[in-house]
Amino acid sequence: MSGTVVMKFGGTSVADAQRIRRAAQRIVAKREEGHRVVAVLSARGKTTDELIRAAQEISDSPDPREMDMLLSTGERQSCALCAMAINDLGHRAISLTGSQAGIVTDTSHTKARILEVRADRIHDGLDADAIVLVAGFQGVSTARDVTTLGRGGSDTTAVALAAAVDAELCEIYTDVAGVFTADPRMVPDARKLSTVSFEEMLEMSASGAGVLQLRAVEYARNHGVRIHCRSSFEDGAGTFVLTEEETMERPLVTAVTHSTDEARVTLTGLPDRPGIAGRVMTALAKANVNVDMIIQNEPQSEGQRADMSFTVPRDDIRGAHDALDPLVEELGIGAIASDPAMGKVSLVGAGMRSHPGVAAKAFSVLGAAGVNIEMISTSPIKISCVVREADVARAVRELHTAFELGADAVRREDVQGVHRPVVSS
Amino acid sequence: MSGTVVMKFGGTSVADAQRIRRAAQRIVAKREEGHRVVAVLSARGKTTDELIRAAQEISDSPDPREMDMLLSTGERQSCALCAMAINDLGHRAISLTGSQAGIVTDTSHTKARILEVRADRIHDGLDADAIVLVAGFQGVSTARDVTTLGRGGSDTTAVALAAAVDAELCEIYTDVAGVFTADPRMVPDARKLSTVSFEEMLEMSASGAGVLQLRAVEYARNHGVRIHCRSSFEDGAGTFVLTEEETMERPLVTAVTHSTDEARVTLTGLPDRPGIAGRVMTALAKANVNVDMIIQNEPQSEGQRADMSFTVPRDDIRGAHDALDPLVEELGIGAIASDPAMGKVSLVGAGMRSHPGVAAKAFSVLGAAGVNIEMISTSPIKISCVVREADVARAVRELHTAFELGADAVRREDVQGVHRPVVSS
Q: Are the CB atoms for A20 and B66 separated by under 8 Å?
């Protein structure tokens, strides 16, 4: 008997009866290889959106506790249907709700955090030779209420269960074949990466790569869960997310990520007093506005006024204005302006740590392409540039080419086998 | 503070956002009268049918445990949505799953029976001044799995909760205004009954009146739960189901009920040996075929063969044949025939107990109307006649008129007030 594998199927992978049956076949195949299998399923296709719409028809601000009760039903349906399909294939499967699976969360409805996994019933099921299906995205709070983990929470469910049952691998099945050097819809010669480190994956998830939820990657890194991101529609390896030691050599740059839904808010004429920025950020935090990059222009001389810009998700512009308008008079802010048409382009790569020249090259590439950089932020393995939304696609393609990330670039992985790192320069 | 009231809303009463809001308003109005309110909701409109269809797309014989996991989601959605609507009306509501509400059942998936109600969380909610919404039709088994109570189980949930919280009344809101002297779609002058006794309601539910589930009426009688059956779309009293003492005087006949989905199976040339009927009925019970009436013609003389006929729900004809065909040779049965086009007409009335002439009058009425009676069964307060399906409507109307049940008949209730019995002769 091999070890335990956790398999997670996203909404598009269980969207209809045919796809549920295909997922069931994959699960059964894994079981027949000798693995103990725990599968985590998302809600079918558009189910969650439909439930949200039903709630919005009832209420402008649905009660969060009830929202969780409502939304958690979608994943339960997927699991029950998939269990039926597996039982028809001659294997025994049982579905469990997040609560039954022992996923204990805090009481923050609609965005609960997992506190603990009490996997007794999962172990009971596995010990009884059953395949255990667990409804993703949900748990039970310490107050015994149904909670949900927020959008994309099923990835986190899968990783948390993988840690709890000491799985040898957590497979994330999605509608893309793995993690790419850039979004293939934007960059036709983008390449699938065979491995990526947790640190890189964290930066990529945070800067726009939608393939894995940031929280899930964090949880996996903290608990040492190996992730394999792969397609539910085709066979063949996807991308392994591993520790940096396991990924061996690192290229200078691993991938270019982007987002096109940024907005910039600018406060002008700020009085030059201590604590102003703190008040501004506190007001935004209270209003749940997620601030990404911040720039403050220091006043040129004593008594002058300062400017401050920051980026927020485009959907949060209204929230930012609502939070800050009351402060204009109180703090003596000159004006508040916002520009909704911003985007962000990021280079991610563990190799940057030892190669400080990456930023300079990136800025040159964008400059030569006529892309104006509005704001910059960096980490040891990431450089992000805020640019105009209209420039995002061009910026991504230019950087992808300049750093030789494309399929035409020399690839050592072709020589060294699929588990070796991608080296593109 | 008045006592606790349980309000149950069926699927048509919560079919869309507008109806859910209307149900919420009714619930809030009851709360504002000073009652503590527990509301039991069914799944929205066609939700359960859609979920059954989704299961059938996956499997020809869906696993019952998983079927329960799937179907139980519909009621949870209704409850969550209705709780949102109530919260918007300025009252606090919490929704509970059957499991959270403490409805403990046996492990018979898809047709579980309630063993116990541990109403702690309901009491906690009520004590905290909240309106408590409970998902109908479901519970949690002694093996900690989600179970469902079978079609119409939400009525049973409501009655069981009413008993558990010692409610002063269990209100069943449906799309009809109460219990009628006959199906108003078939008999235009059918009259709404202001009261009906448990015993009569049991006979009526068993013989085709769809307004209340038989099991719910049984549970209510055994636990002394007062039921008020009423419309969710109009105000005004519906029908109270009470003990016979409370209903005071009883009319000779209270109502005419019918069903049009009966079938008759006839076994001819049965050997005249003891135990044959027992073998036949055992085989049918094992196949879950519900036998209603049975007639056996005794052989006229020693050595002759007997005939046996029984009625089953039309959907069970195939099951009956499948169960009995293997016995033909073994028992030496001559032949098995079936007729799918049968129906049943029943007269129900507590007054029959002391008036043996009702049966004779009923047979005369049907005879005069040219309706052939194929089989008869009686109880102290019911007479049922199996007739051809095509004759059902005529039989119902003739009996309704002959026993003066219509709106034009003299009614003492008009004089005596709404809680007094209906006396039609």
A: no
Roughly what angle, to the nearest 10 degrees, separates helices A17-32 and A64-88?
A: 60
| Chain A partners within 8 Å of B63 (Cβ) | 83-84, 87
CB contact at 8 A, B265 and B301? no
**Rounded distance between C-alpha atoms, residue A170 and residue A157, angstroms:** 11
φ/ψ of B287, rounded to 5, equals -90, 10
Tokens of B103: 């409805």
ipTM field: 0.82
Chosen for mutation from B18, B81, B95 (greatest number of chain A CBs closer than 10 Å) is B81
| Structural domains of chain B sorted by starting position, each given as residue range(s) with its CATH number in brackets | 4-175 (3.40.1160.10), 261-341 (3.30.70.260), 343-416 (3.30.2130.10)
Q: Are A344 and A208 in contact (CB under 8 A)?
A: yes
Helices B64-88 and A64-88, axial angle in degrees (round to 10): 170
DSSP B348: E
Does residue A107 sit at the B interface (CB-CB below 8 Å)?
no
Q: C-alpha distances in angstroms, A390 versus A346, A375, A387, B172, B418?
A: 16, 15, 8, 59, 73
Six-digit token string for A215:
């929280």
* Per-residue b or e along B81-102, where b marks 16 or more CB atoms closer than 10 Å to that residue's CB: bbbbbbbbbebebbbbbbbbbb
Torsion (CA) B55, A72, B78, B100 in degrees, nearest 10: 100
Q: Please write the tens of the pLDDT for every residue from A367-419.
A: 999 999 999 988 889 999 999 999 999 999 999 999 999 876 544 444 333 33
Estimate the crossing angle of helix B64-88 against helix A47-58, to 10 degrees.
30
d(CA B3, CA A196): 64
Tally of CB atoms within 10 A around B310: 22
Stated length of chain A: 425
pLDDT digits (tens, 9 = 90+) for A149-202: 987 799 999 999 999 999 999 999 998 899 999 999 999 999 999 999 999 999
Please answer yes or no on whether A69 and B80 come within 8 Å at the CB atom: yes
